[in-house]
Queue: 2 jobs
Job 1
Amino acid sequence: MASDIIIRPLRAEDHEEWSRLWTAYLAFYETELPAEVYQTAFSRLLSGEAGEFQGLIAEIDGQPVGLTHYLFHRMLWSIEDTCYLLDLYTDPSARGRGAGRALIEAVHSAAKEAGIPDIYWQTQEFNYKGRMLYDQLATRTPFIIYEKHG
Amino acid sequence: MASDIIIRPLRAEDHEEWSRLWTAYLAFYETELPAEVYQTAFSRLLSGEAGEFQGLIAEIDGQPVGLTHYLFHRMLWSIEDTCYLLDLYTDPSARGRGAGRALIEAVHSAAKEAGIPDIYWQTQEFNYKGRMLYDQLATRTPFIIYEKHG
Amino acid sequence: MASDIIIRPLRAEDHEEWSRLWTAYLAFYETELPAEVYQTAFSRLLSGEAGEFQGLIAEIDGQPVGLTHYLFHRMLWSIEDTCYLLDLYTDPSARGRGAGRALIEAVHSAAKEAGIPDIYWQTQEFNYKGRMLYDQLATRTPFIIYEKHG
Amino acid sequence: MASDIIIRPLRAEDHEEWSRLWTAYLAFYETELPAEVYQTAFSRLLSGEAGEFQGLIAEIDGQPVGLTHYLFHRMLWSIEDTCYLLDLYTDPSARGRGAGRALIEAVHSAAKEAGIPDIYWQTQEFNYKGRMLYDQLATRTPFIIYEKHG
């Protein structure tokens, strides 16, 4: 079913397609970010350094159709780090082919290879389409999020 | 009101009181952790290194009555990092005197000093007493959390 | 779009199709009811008496494909009664053609004709497909439901 | 603990105290109702007729300190009716003495005497104080409420 989807690390030559996909993703959250944030994010994603987000691309027929960004970070309740999956996106035209699921599972595999057992992500309560997938793959916790702004 | 509460960084000599407070906090989440996790957590909290959680203690009359643990970590949607407030606890006997509020505000100040505008935390939907405070200080987002375990 | 859908009152000759549709609906809630409840419900739905639920059928090409059950009942906060929409179902094979929306709007019209301005219904938080429709037609309130059993 | 609380049916001579209590309750929901609604509601509550809400008063030392309004209405999923507890209020000065709990339990008893096994009520997700009580007495269902206005 998902056999024609390839998940691979983000690469420098993905810059244009990555920008397109991330912009489409951010638009879902009614968010626009300045060019400086794109530049900084892309450079951090490629840095390979500890404490930086990493990126994966979903490809169908050699064409990027989805992305995810995730961060390994400390967790005090365990010796192991945890993994925060921040962004997840698939082109509308490529949906229903398993790219979202494959991206989440690839993050999970990358975490496990790094000795990290759990991944987590936030989603809006009313992200019904996303949650149809997440309910199959993961567990909804009873946690909600509070934010305090500058 | 909160005038007799002092918030200060966690110190090596707090080990015993810190263990007591963290154990009481974890009990609220019906969680017990092995000694190794306590040792590792305490040593990381005191390390002062980037990528590690930091700790604050709330003191009344020279006696530790509360704690919080927080982590600065990357955020892709901004140049600035963000701040994840993980643990927050006040002794039942010291409640109602503003220690919880003072701890959150001290994390917020520490974040701002580090150039980080926002802090966020998770709480259980049914943590009514906590939410009475959080609703005064912060904004509930529409986000929920999914987890995928090893 | 919904031009081929007819919404009409439940009739005695619908008994078999009504049973089929209600059973399918109840199965969604993992509920099975004894024959006695079917008999009593059907007879009450057709009674035309005050204080009883009423039923509507959605028909496509003369074939029942959906149903709804609703009750007018007192409300203390207004002179007017209110309207509780209890059950709503469309055959999977007929979905996407507007039957669910037409059923809700027909209940709303029936209520308005009876001098009742508002209708309300419950749905499970995780009824994502239903909520995609409800969010277009109605407002989610901040209310949740508690139940105390015998 | 609740030994000094008496729960009894609403009576005609309660009009003034009932108005005071209901006004205070409605103020919690930032609601003001015209005199006509008060008149109609009170007269319906005392009517003793089927299809009307009924009222109970909580008394301490002969003084009304709380009220509840409830309605028996049809339910299609059972032969028995169900019971909708609409309003529940205790004077702030009388809180902590068990009046809210006693009122809910009295509605439950009245329902059982009428052959009705279950009672239910709505509450706002963020009614933390109410929910501390409800979580002890009842079960939170996964249901949320949608409303469609005139």
Job 2
Amino acid sequence: MVDILHKVGIKSSSPNDAYKALTTREGLSAWWTIDTRGDSKVGGVLLFRFGDGGFDMKVLEFQPAKRVLWQVLDGPQEWIGTKISFDLKQEGDWTIVLFKHHGWKEPVEFMYHCSTKWAVFLLSLKSLLETGKGAPWPNEFKLDGWEEAAPRASTTAAA
Amino acid sequence: MVDILHKVGIKSSSPNDAYKALTTREGLSAWWTIDTRGDSKVGGVLLFRFGDGGFDMKVLEFQPAKRVLWQVLDGPQEWIGTKISFDLKQEGDWTIVLFKHHGWKEPVEFMYHCSTKWAVFLLSLKSLLETGKGAPWPNEFKLDGWEEAAPRASTTAAA
């Protein structure tokens, strides 16, 4: 089992504002993908779409201003069953987001890609909370040819 | 043991150009830190400085246009003994960089920070090779309060 870990600090925000950006469709669609659907409550399923592909996430845990935990129900094969958590805390002027995407079976090349891509989206979350403007899909920073041709998630269909 | 993994694609570059950016002081100082010193050859030691702190890396492996491997001799305690590799390949119009920082003993919070920070610097490498301009320290994108006060590496002194 290998994990993707990230940390960003958000200036002059609050764990509560970060929590809102992670638990409301409006918030999620402002930093991850504009095409965010579904039911953002414990036991509910959120649908994140990136053109042809995407992820279905079951909400496992919501602790206001503290923690969010999802589990991947559907999406690229490598993601299914993995869990994604966001832990929030305040440190001085900074709201800290500790991100973990855990339960990957193997460190395949797609995992390398997803790790860097999560960083890109977490910087979008940071920007949203600091400036009011994130860069959700389809306007996020592109990393490589996989994304130029089509969202990588769509290759699941070929798997 | 836990690893930090990343992948970036660089458009209209070549594995050879990426290799130069990873193996010459001129290249390294244009995307990682402007204060890069030492001897960039197998068996040599490179000194990367970020103000008060930094990393000393022994060069373990150079495979032209293919692979670079360093081992950390000195720096923050958590880094000592870890290894950092860059694997290069061409895929169509894209030069692919697969990055691995391996040998972390524990997934401490500093590892979360370093993971995201490596993404920031790899995006700087991508920018350098695509546009001629990277964002090395001290002009890199800042992630959190650790960096605002002083480079995190300097806290080693307190460890």
